[in-house]
Amino acid sequence: MGIKLRLAERMSRLGTETAFEVLARARALEASGREIIHLEIGEPDFDTPEFIRKAAQKAMDAGFTHYTPAAGLPDVRKVVADHLSKKIGVAYQPENIVITPGAKPVMFLSILALIETGDEVIYPNPGFPIYESAANFVGGKAVPYPLQEKDGFRMEGEKLKKLVTDKTRMLILNSPHNPTGAVLGKKELEGIFEVIKSREDIWVLSDEIYGRILYDGQHTSIAAFPGMAERTIVLDGMSKAYAMTGWRLGFGAMPEALAQAVTKLAINDFSCTSGFGQKAIEAALTGPQEEVEKMVAEFKARRDLIVAGLKQIPRLTVTEPSGAFYVFPSIKDFGKSSKEMADYLLESVGVACLSGTAFGKFGEGYIRFSYANSQKNIRLALEKIKTTLEKL
Ligand code: PLP
Predict the structure, then answer these.
(1) Long-range pairs of 78-84 with CB within 8 A, sequence gap ≥ 24
(2) Where do the CATH 3.40.640.10 domains begin and end in the chain?
(3) What is the pLDDT of residue 208?
(4) Residue range(s) in the chain whose domain bears CATH number 3.90.1150.10
(5) Interval 211-251: pLDDT, tens
(6) What is the distance in A from the centroid of ligand 1 to the CA of 334?
(7) Ligand 1 center–CA 390 separation, angstroms
(8) Probe residue for ligand 1, chosen from 41, 153, 175, 240 as the CB with the greatest number of ligand atoms within 8 Å
(9) Structurally, what CATH architecture does the domain formed by 67-286 represent?
(10) DSSP string, 22-67
(11) Per-residue pLDDT at 41
């Protein structure tokens, strides 16, 4: 194969999600006989609840195997609209909803639809790496909001104000937050709202994919603030709360005109989301919610376990996460970079985790553990981490 590949220039602006690379490395080590504890990947270790799997099987047998309307089946859009209206407190209609293969397309397509060359997009850093990647890719300027440990990794209005310029076109929020587990409560959201309330040209992409995985208090969305639903895209989906990562089912709620633009992009890209998958969304959102509650209770027990265990390790500092299933301890006292520390834990004791810099440059000095693993494995990992860090 002698032909030299010449990629389009825009590819140089595209980032990636290193979680998948670390997972591949950890799996390769496993294949060579090493025992690995996986605390790197952000997906529930539970099976999708049986009644949801059954609903998809039934739908497949009933013929939901064809193309569907690009934005989703009307009945399912209605179910999602009702679900989000209840969760968020905004009266969404089916026309506000676009159903997508996973929640990620909501991120990419809304940025593609709204951001012009040179438009500034403020995003949390450390944060989900695709925000920065997508904003830069479309020609925008990704402007990091450096989240700080001393603020509990929460965004604050006063600090946000300093980043807002005439060119700001979008603000990305993520609560509960990946990778820190921080939650934006009403107070923080009020502070943020104060900064942007008079700027009708600023859109908010509110990533609420972990909104159900919350350990204290109520989920609050910026979309519920006066006038904000008219310029907020709520990103949500089935992956995390219902343990359905591999099904690739997500959705966005947004003003109807934007939903139409995003649907047009969907038609150009993936056409539609599988019909039987959408029937699984319907079953999940209208069926019994006990399994979600059970999973969240288990995540909470694991959160308590891992936080208590990490606190026992000298020189590590830990901020207690209030949601999602991640903890983001500081490793600043060990004289290693985040990447070196993540590599060291994998090589020395077979504990896979992610470098804080996998979430942007302000993640330096931290590592992320995902506690979507059994309590038994978390206990074992804690012992191993403690033993090896004590040697440094
Ligand atoms: N947003 C955040 C903050 C995430 O952590 C993830 C997945 O890890 C997503 C969005 C994407 O979700 P999905 O797998 O449904 O595309």
Answers:
(1) 79/281, 79/282, 79/285, 79/286, 80/251, 80/253, 80/281, 80/285, 81/253, 83/285, 84/234, 84/236, 84/251, 84/253
(2) 67-286
(3) 98
(4) 9-47+290-390
(5) 999 998 889 999 999 999 999 999 999 999 999 999 999 99
(6) 31
(7) 34
(8) 240
(9) 3-Layer(aba) Sandwich (3.40)
(10) HHHHHHHHHHTT---EE-SS-S--SPPPHHHHHHHHHHHHTT--S-
(11) 87
| DSSP secondary structure code for residue 177 in this structure | P
- Ligand 1 centroid–CA 247 distance in Å is 13
Return the CATH class of domain 9-47+290-390.
alpha beta
Please give the pLDDT value at position 1. Answer: 64
The per-residue pLDDT for 351 is: 97
Cα(323) to centroid(ligand 1), Å:
14
Q: Compute, in angstroms, the gap from residue 325 CA to the centroid of ligand 1.
A: 12
Q: Is the peptide bond before 124 cis (omega within 30 degrees of 0)?
A: no
Quote the tokens at residue 340: 């070196």
**Average predicted confidence (pLDDT) for the chain:** 97
Which of 2-6, 367-371, 372-376, 385-389 bottoms out in mean pLDDT, i.e. has the lowest?
A: 2-6
Q: Give the ligand 1 atom nearest the CA of 128.
A: 3
Q: Which residues line ligand 1 (CB under 6 A)?
A: 42, 102-104, 128, 174, 178, 207, 209, 237, 239, 245, 250
pLDDT in tens, 59-109: 999 999 999 999 999 999 999 999 999 999 999 999 999 999 999 999 999
Q: How do residues 176-185 score in pLDDT, each as one tens digit?
A: 999 999 999 9
